[in-house]
Amino acid sequence: MTGQDFERKIVHAFNDYQDAYGKKLIAYRHFQMRFQPQLFDVLVDSRFNEFYLAIECKSVNYKQTQGLYFKQHFSWKDGVCQVEREDKWLNLSGRNGILAVEVRGGAGARNRTFFVPWATVIHNFKANRVGIPADVITGCPVSRSAGGKYLIDDDLMEEIIERCISYPRSKSRAKKSHRWNKED
Known about the structure:
The chain is α+β, with helices and mostly antiparallel strands. The protein has a single domain (about 5-30, about 40-175), classed as Trna Endonuclease, Chain: A, domain 1. The protein contains 6 helices and 11 strands. It has a 7-stranded mixed beta sheet with strand order 1-2-3-7-8-10-11. It has a two-stranded antiparallel sheet with strand order 4-9. A two-stranded antiparallel sheet has the order 5-6. The longest helix is centred in the first third of the chain and has 19 residues, at about 5-20.
């Protein structure tokens, strides 16, 4: 599966979440221009800060790596890592950043996607670590594939929101009991 397939699955997962739970958000793939470095693969727009997201997608085979490595899994342009460029863009845009890491399980095993908060990514980068270890990634909120799709529900979304660092944030935005009204 290509990285673009994974990006599409993440877009569908967030848009399916919006449909199933009546949330006011829309996810789409970030337009990529030729010869220009892309900043984040998927964007989620919402007037609520909790759902205003930028998602970088990485897909790895668990047998081939023990984590994500900054020199191997992220692009570099003129000596500047993709992580640095994306962090600067997040700070300008006000979005919550997430690294979505798909761990492909191989034959007979279900794929999983871990939602790593951007604060974890940038902390590891600024601490001059070579990457983000597998145990850190697998300690983050997870969605398992079912029927070739990733599913996001209120519980998973609440966990993702809880780990985001932008304010204001309200985990209650990801509750089934939340009703939209004109005052929101």
